[in-house]
Amino acid sequence: MQSLFLIFTVFIAAITCNNTSYGQQSTPIDSEILFVRRIAPLLREKCLGCHGNNPQEIEGSLDVRSLAGLFAGGDSSEPSIVTGKPDKSPLYLAATRNSDDWSEMPPKEAEQLSAEQLTWLREWITSGAQWPSKPQQETIQKKFAEAWSLEDGIPVGTSGGLSPEWTDRKYDPAGLWAYQPVTKVAIKGTRNPIDVLIEQELPTGLTLAPRADRRTLIRRATFDLTGLPPLPQEVEAFVNDASRPFISFTPLRRANGTTLVGCRPLCRFIRFCE
Ligand code: HEC
Predict the structure, then answer these.
(1) CA atoms within 13 A on the CB side of 112
(2) Closest Cα to atom 36, ligand 1: which residue?
(3) pTM of the model
(4) Which of 112, 113, 250, 263 has the greatest CB tally within 10 Å of its CB?
């Protein structure tokens, strides 16, 4: 009987303990994490341009830089968020673009929120619309940085974008050609592999241009390499040479002794000759 009592006590303790940790971790903290991970970047990217970046010109008088600003609301004087109730929150309703009472936000259709972004907003409001302090945000960011980065993909150096979100965007390695292992493609026959590959991938409805004759080839190559048309004797020599264009092009020299190929990369030269 005593041991039965003990088991019962442990059982109750386990439930209580679970409940406590659930209570602490679930609602507020999930909402804080969601804020740092999704909501703050979303508001920055989609709303702050008109609702806070320039404090002198805040559209509709709605300041989205803080929770206090959201609760204060804009011209309507209605709080933009009703905690726990997205369907009563002007912020969410405006973003759904499907409300009789609130204008579509952001106003430009091209910038509308995706279904996923709307779900984040909804969840954030439902879970208590927590807005952690700056130091708390940094702690959360640090704590989850690695896990999020694994989920989001890898960063790739770029020449920059209009927003930090775009500049620092992450890529799924499976979608990046530079991360794919190099494979050797078997090309049958003696034709130039580039032609074969282009033919294989040619979209329906497109056909290859006819092969250029030698006169056209020498003109294209000379324009590309020197910016000028070929000399008449260069055209004659090239047209009357029976060897393959690539071979007959090599010895071509200008009157001043420079070769036509000069120091331009050989690949460009081959592209025009073959
Ligand atoms: C290009 C500028 C622009 C952007 C971007 C923008 N808004 Fe607005 N917003 C306005 C203007 C202008 C008004 C006031 C006129 C109106 O309500 O149509 C307004 C009003 C609002 C209001 C009504 C405030 C009130 O109490 O009257 C809400 C809510 C709102 N915006 C939410 C958002 C949200 C959320 C985003 C981002 C997802 C956003 N806006 C992005 C220009 C913008």
Answers:
(1) 12
(2) 47
(3) 0.59
(4) 113
